[in-house]
Each structure stands twice: as C-alpha cells, then as structure tokens.
Write a structure and sequence with these properties.
The protein has 1 helix and 8 strands, in the order αββββββββ. The protein is mainly beta. The chain has a domain of 84 residues: Immunoglobulin-like (Sandwich), CATH 2.60.40. The strands form 2 sheets. The chain has a 4-stranded antiparallel sheet with strand order 4-1-6-7, with no helix packed on it. A 4-stranded antiparallel sheet has the order 3-2-5-8, with no helix packed on it. The longest helix is centred in the first third of the chain and has 17 residues. It comes from Streptomyces lasiicapitis. InterPro entries: MmpS_C.
C-alpha cells in the first residue's frame, strides 16, 4: 500500500513539473490533482501497560413492589406511615393468577383487588381490631401489612393458595398491638 502511494506521489510531481510552473488562467483550465499520502510512523509505538480488571458481583433480591413505604431486608413496611386518625392496609408482591383480598375492622369488612394494593380507612376508636387477609389464587409470593397510629403488623405468603394475614388488636389500656 505504501509503495503504491509513493508511485502516485511521484507521478503527481512529474505532472506538476511538466506544467513548468505556469498558472493557467483560462476559464476552461482544470484544477491540478492533489495527492495526499497518510503513513503510519516507522517503528512500533509503545503499548500502554494493561490496567487491572475489576469485577463487582451483586446478588439481586427479588423485587417486591411495596407502594408508598420503603421496605427493609425483612420486607417490613416502614413504621409510622399511617396518617393520624387513619388505618392503612397494604398488599404487595407477585401473584400471577391474582389474589382475594379482604380488609377492615371487626365491624367493617371490605374487598380489595390488584397488586400492589393500598387502602386507607378512617380510624374507628370503637373497633376491636383491624385486619388484612390476601389469599393467592395459585402460585405467588406476597406480603401484607396493616398500620394504625405508627404500629405495623405484617404477614407473608408464598406458594399455591396460601394466605397472607396481618392483624392489629386494640389494647385494653389504649394503643394497638
């Protein structure tokens, strides 16, 4: 490749010398050809020293889609996420065939659907307990929680047709446990 470039360069120099250095000013004058030769530098360039390779391996945990509250490593909802005077019921996880969800108090039972599910009710101070129950309709892995006045109870279910349940009971001296 390089010898051919020198041949072309030499031919271009010969053509230029034959013209005698005269400038052609006629309108039909053709521009002179330009020859560009690109060469690699002679000799070998020093290769940079190889850099060490660092590999980081992380073990991924299955994702659980818990709405509105960060979960720690035990899938516990963050405490204190229920606003004052409210009860928060949550069900999250994976249930490809779906779930049957019921939630409420000893005097008020309701149905929920879809994952993740978050429902909020007004706190009834006369209620004896608040509960959430979610049954898998086939396989899956779900978590559930009920939160009253900063106190949270949680449950977990995995496998076919298992039930996740969580319940907070009203204490005799007040509060929830």
């Amino acid at each position: 490749m390089i010898p051919a470039a020198f041949v072309i360069l030499g031919a271009g120099m010969g053509i230029g010398a034959a013209a005698g250095g005269e400038e052609q000013t006629s309108p039909a004058a053709k521009p002179r050809p330009t020859v560009t030769v690109t060469q690699k530098p002679a000799g070998r360039a020093a290769k940079p020293a190889p850099q060490p390779t660092v590999t980081v391996t992380k073990t991924a945990k299955p994702k659980t889609s818990e709405p509105e509250a960060a979960a720690d490593s035990d899938n516990k909802p963050a405490p204190g996420k229920a606003p004052s005077g409210k009860v928060v019921f949550k069900v999250w996880g994976s249930a490809p065939a779906g779930t049957d969800v019921t939630y409420g108090s000893d005097s008020d039972s309701r149905e929920g659907s879809g994952l993740p599910m978050t429902k909020t009710l007004t706190l009834d101070t006369d209620a004896l307990y608040y509960h959430v129950s979610a049954q898998l309709l086939g396989g899956g892995d779900i978590n559930c929680s009920v939160t009253v006045d900063g106190t949270t109870k949680k449950g977990h279910a995995s496998g076919g047709y298992n039930i996740c349940s969580a319940q907070l009971n009203g204490g005799l001296t007040g509060g929830w446990d």
